[in-house]
Write a structure and sequence with these properties.
Chains A, B: One of its GO terms (molecular function) is metal ion binding. The structure is a homodimer. With about 240 residues, the first copy, chain A, is mainly α. The first copy, chain A, is about 75% helix and about 0% strand. Chain A has one domain: Up-down Bundle (Four Helix Bundle (Hemerythrin (Met), subunit A)). Chain A is globular and about 55 Å long. At the A-B interface, helix 4, helix 5 and helix 6 of A face helix 4, helix 5 and helix 6 of B.
Chain lengths: ~240, ~240
């Protein structure tokens, strides 16, 4: 399932949406919801860290990690290092972001882990971690044999894409869940904040879609690459 | 992005999940929520038609339409007919399902089209319809020239997969939205109905995932097929 567009061109659209999404989530949490705080008597400020870290960390930086293989004019070992480093940052920010959701719940006496958003979120972060470790061990250090790497590569790409799409779905659930809580407490259903949150969700989904379209597009022809934009095996 | 598993085997898992999902949504709407009705003074019974038609119609039958090309032991023109007929049924049931949501809202004085679920739902059904018409005109009747069909095929597969994943995400939003409303009205967050709805959502996501895995798996070797499991051009 590949398309004829150039990966670098598709990634430009993704970068624009990444900047837009980051601005929107900051406008929402800082401009409309009072700002961000690690410790505060206003527990809502602790919650606000959650969407910021999940969007800018897990989704945006994670998407850049995915696209890095297809868009950067670097040699394979360097792209591999960029790929795993960006994913490590995304994973770390995602873990801190999930921690802030629990912190907010615990300090506000709100139940944990009853919603589909929370269930899928735990699934996503666990799979993301497993996928990162699996990638590290098989493709980087110590690295599997060429035949193991060749066998593992399609599953690495498939599981990675699956986890990323699941992360996008989980983020969408988060926007809807938070906005529904706010609307149940009186926020206008057609007001500016409701539109802002829904547009942030749509920008998130569009960004993720262009990340996936980048994977399915054509890598630069001057680079040595396989169908995923890189050669999985050095001696091939 | 293809994997070495046989498409037919992957589709067996999808079929099992389809039956399970259909049972779960009927147990929820009939067993827990009072049943289904087109006209009733209890407007909740009108709403109940919505998840049943969206899951069994758009998601389950739509998924069978997608998989039909990869799993049925038929010649290409027959598979094409099955593919477009099942998609037409899925689309029709989806449109009726969306109509029942509006009907329920209007008869209960609930606002329409303010949530992310409703926005994406309108997007999904519109794109589904466009995709169906586009497929009909280009690949079936009157049918494009061989070069047009060859050019159009990867985009047909890509857009179809995109719309289907978006439908899965929209369905997940629907489960979460409805359950959040119920929980705000006193339903137990860790009660059996809450678990039932969340498990139905997870079965829906798993079913859709196995539908996508079927597309990415290997079609039967005795059938003539291209990378998508069928030859787009008769004279090739």
């Amino acid at each position: 399932m590949t398309i004829g567009l150039k990966a670098v061109h598709v990634s430009y659209v993704a970068h624009f949406l990444a900047v837009l999404g980051a601005i929107l989530v900051l406008v929402w949490t800082i401009g409309f919801r009072g700002g961000l705080a690690w410790e505060s008597s206003n527990k809502n400020l602790i919650f606000n860290i959650h969407p910021v870290l999940m969007l800018i960390g897990l989704i945006i930086i994670g998407g850049q990690a995915i696209m890095s293989y297809k868009m950067l004019p670097l040699k394979k070992p360097q792209k591999k290092l960029v790929h795993l480093t960006l994913h490590a940052i995304a994973l770390a920010l995602g873990i801190i972001g999930i921690y802030t959701a629990f912190k907010y719940h615990n300090e506000s006496n709100i139940a944990n882990l009853y919603s589909l958003h929370s269930w899928l979120g735990i699934g996503v972060i666990s799979l993301y971690g497993i996928q990162w470790l699996f990638g590290l061990v098989v493709f980087f250090y110590p690295g599997g044999t060429p035949s193991i790497r060749k066998e593992a590569l399609p599953y690495h790409v498939l599981l990675g894409t699956f986890v990323y799409i699941l992360a996008l779905g989980t983020a969408s659930l988060g926007y809807l869940e938070k906005l529904t809580f706010l609307e149940n407490n009186g926020l206008a259903k057609y007001g500016s904040e409701a539109f802002l949150v829904n547009f942030t969700a749509i920008v998130t989904i569009l960004y993720g879609s262009f990340v996936i379209f980048t994977i399915l597009s054509q890598a630069p022809p001057d680079e040595e690459h396989d169908q995923y934009g890189y050669t999985p095996i050095q001696n091939e």
